[in-house]
Structures are given as C-alpha cells and as structure tokens.
Specification:
The protein is mainly alpha-helical. The chain has helices at residues 2-18, 95-98, 102-128, 134-159, 166-182, and strands at residues 28-30, 57-62, 81-87. The protein starts with a helix and ends in a 9-residue tail after the last helix.
Length: 191
C-alpha cells in the first residue's frame, strides 16, 4: 500500500508542477533583486528582419489560471498578483557588436518590474476594498501596462535605444532604481 500512495503523491506533484511556470523554466527568468541579465540569457537566433538587441518581457498574472465565476468574481482574489518575466527564447543579443547595450536591456527588464510593482500596489488597494471582480483588476492592469509601454518608449527615445552616452544611461538607471526603491514594499520573491 505505501508504494501506491507514493506513486499517487508523485503523480499529483508532477501534474501540479507542470502547470506552473517557475523560475527554473528553461525559457523564463522572473525578475529578482540583485540578479542581472547575462548575454547567455538572450537565446533567440536573430532573424534577418530583427532589430538590434531585444528584451522580450511580460508582466504575467499569477496564479496563471485565474478562476472567475459567472458574476465576474475571482475565486481566491487575495492571491492574485503579477510577476515580471524575461523570455529567453524570444530575446536576442549579439555580443560581438552590442556588448555595450546589456545595461540598456537590463534597465528595460527593470522597468517591467517597476510597473509590476505599481500593478501589485494597485491590486493591494483593491483587495483592501474587497474588490473581487476580475474585470476591475484587468482594467487596472491594462491601464498600467499601457503606462509601462509609454515609459519604455520614453526610455528608448531618451537613450537612443542604449546607443546614447553612458551618462544618459546612468541618469535613467538612477531614476529607475529610485522608483523601484520607492515601491520596495511591493517587491515579491520569485514564484
């Protein structure tokens, strides 16, 4: 009987684990304090039509499968959060002639975490008000995701996509890190 129980436990464990994106995924890195992107993290082969370096990121809802009832209420709404993810197999980087752009790409990922924190902050405010409607969370997520895209665009223009002087990059780095520190309360450990 113990062997059957162990088999069932292992089966359930593997099913649960296979449904969850984790930090150990071969293609996804969740943003973490103090961890920097490395050239080897950019694993997409560059196509002829691809631009210079590219950081593919996503601010993902967690848990991945949000259960919503017919009244638009999230089941377990207090567990809802977001995570900034770097997608290795969609990101490309050519170390021979773009080595100086790694800091720019890291800051692009840092901006994703900055807005993930802003979304988490908004979600916490909504949870305090006992908001349970998924559409309300989705709306706020979309508003802040649009703001993230605008911020990324401003960053790209101001730094000429990383080709600007190191002084300009350093100015943005200080700005982004100050904003991250101001929202430190909304940082999370990798899921």
């Amino acid at each position: 009987m113990p062997k059957k129980l162990l088999f069932v436990f292992c089966l359930i464990f593997n099913l649960v684990r296979s449904q969850d994106k984790s930090v150990t995924s071969e293609n996804i890195i969740q943003w973490q304090e103090g961890c920097k992107l490395d050239i080897s993290d950019f694993q997409k082969e560059r196509d002829i039509n691809d631009s210079y370096t590219f950081t593919a990121y996503k601010i993902e809802f967690y848990p991945l499968e949000v259960v919503v009832d017919r009244n638009d209420y999230i089941q377990g709404y207090k567990d809802l959060t977001v995570v900034a993810e770097f997608h290795m197999n969609e990101s490309h980087f050519h170390p021979d002639y773009e080595a100086d752009l790694l800091k720019f790409e890291q800051l692009t990922f840092d901006i994703a975490e900055l807005f993930a924190r802003k979304i988490r902050k908004k979600f916490e405010e909504m949870k305090t008000e006992k908001e349970r409607r998924f559409s309300a969370y989705q709306y706020e997520y979309n508003v802040l995701l649009k703001a993230c895209r605008a911020y990324q665009s401003e960053f790209r223009k101001a730094t000429n996509s990383g080709w600007e002087s190191q002084k300009e990059i350093n100015t943005w780095e200080a700005k982004i890190h100050n904003e991250l520190n101001a929202l430190q309360k909304y940082s999370i450990k990798p899921l």
